[in-house]
Specification:
DUF4371 domain-containing protein, DUF4371, two-stranded antiparallel sheet, RNaseH-like_sf, single chain
Length: 513
Amino acid sequence: MKRNYNNNTDVFKLIDKQHAKQAAENRAYLVEIIRTIVFLCKQGLAFRGHREHGQSFNKGDFLELLALRSLDNPLIKKNLNTLKFTDHKIQNEIIELLQQKILTKILNECRRAKYYSVMNDETTDISCHEQVSSVIRYVDDKLNVFEKFVGFERTASMTGEALCALLIKWLSKLDLKLENLVGQCYDGGSNMRGEYQGVSARLRQVASLGIYVHCNGHILNLCLIDVSARVPSVRNNFGVVSSLYNLIEGSAKRQQVFENIQKEAGLQALTVKQLCETRWTCRFECLKVILLRFNEIVTTLEVTAISDGFLLLNSLQSFDFIIHLFIMSEIYLLTNVLSKSLHYSNISLTDALVQVKITVDTLKSLRNEPEFERFYSEAMKLCDSNDIVPPKEIRKKKVPARFGGGVDAPAALNVKDHYRINIYYTILDTIIPAINGKFDENVLDIVILMEKLFLNKELLNDNEIQELSQHYSISYDDLKVEQRLYKTKMNDQKMNLSQATKFILENNFHIAF
């Protein structure tokens, strides 16, 4: 009974061989399942459908993709209805294993780099729970920069103390040493950047190298939001702009009317843009469309003939709105140029601050009567071409004699002076200090010294070398000699970040120093 007399083979060996063959086939099938899961994860697609039973027309992306692959994959076709491996618990387990594998690879790369930075941001998810998203930034041996998302952490408190404790606990769990943390980047909330109680200050107490940097683009956006919030006339007129977007773009019929009116005028069809606090360039784009298509927008509101449209039309056809349109378009054009410069991947902090100063100086140059006259004249021309009533002189208030009135009553400003002093100058006097004040937070002496060391031909003086050597705990003498060698090889050329990286690699300075 123990032998197959035809081929003289042990029955148990046959069973073992068949079992090994089946196990290999199961593993191969599981590999196909994993490949399917990896594809859906990479594409960011949902896995499960609303109903996954056999009679369902659409069983969800995971099962439908497996069914599609089974048409030209015999292994999947054979096992899909028997072995399966398609239960949602198995899906989640495989995803968890993939997550651990990816995270391990990222952390190994980060540990090889030794030094790293962290970027954190807090958001509220769809279930109204506060969560902190975490990213680590590091470079490889070729000085390529990597920014890797490494997870979410739920938090019950948004204080600087709680968030700092959460970050330290998270870094400990990832086995990343705090003494190797050289940078931290968060938003501008007081709980994050507070000088004494914020996360950045608390983390510096245990990670002294961790310089806090606030995103320059985000700083600029906060400055623009400040103007909209602190100047009532700007806030009110942006309310008109938001209502205009909601009225035209919120209705397919009115949007089509607006498009047809533009085409009949032989113009390219543009859409009214939405104001958005998180999109840094949307304000300029929004005002630009209104300026370019002012006549067509007015015609659209007249044609649609609804009560909200007439109310909006009255606001739109006012001198107050029009002059704000011209003033804010110019300001947002200037800040839009700055925003694009700050988005340049190779821009250094030094160059960014130079661009900020140029923008501020340009804004300051606008604060005079001739420049205001230019805006006032443009607004009057648009009013004349659209039969809009020009601004009326402000009526002088007569104070009754019993309240101290009489010949000594203060004279009221004429309408032009009112818009120059109370509107135009107020806007500029709000945005200029806002930009200066908020960007002063990012004047980081250590970073600027590092840029001077690597990007400029100018030698650091002894005090600057001492400051760098103390901050990074490196030898003063070594740094002084290495600087001399580096600057000599530079041959009096000024470089950007990309060029400096290439220069360091080509000359093996990252190995020698």
